[in-house]
Amino acid sequence: MKITDPKALSIYLRDERRRRGLSQAKVGDLVGLRQGTVSKFESMPEKMQLDTLFRLLSALELELAVKSKGCIVRKKSSASGDKWTEEW
């Protein structure tokens, strides 16, 4: 699955948690997180720490794989300076 932003990642993890029949509290208990932390990750992932992400991946027995997108071509931006033009 291709994930391109934090919200898509949180939705995927939430759906995987639900598919496995686990509550937010149970997932949190497995890796030492509060239920509220799991809830915040699912609703506002852009505000969470990477440690939380890796704990949730561990609780759901998932792993993160990063791969090259191929040739990255940097686009010239306007006079206002360089801006990020790639998707996540």
Automatic annotation (TrEMBL):
UniProt organism field: Idiomarina ramblicola
Gene Ontology molecular function: DNA binding
Protein name: Transcriptional regulator
Taxonomic path: Bacteria, Pseudomonadati, Pseudomonadota, Gammaproteobacteria, Alteromonadales
Domain HTH cro/C1-type positions: 13-67
InterPro entries referenced in this protein's UniProt entry, alphabetically: Cro/C1-type_HTH, Lambda_DNA-bd_dom_sf
Gene3D superfamilies attached to this UniProt entry: lambda repressor-like DNA-binding domains
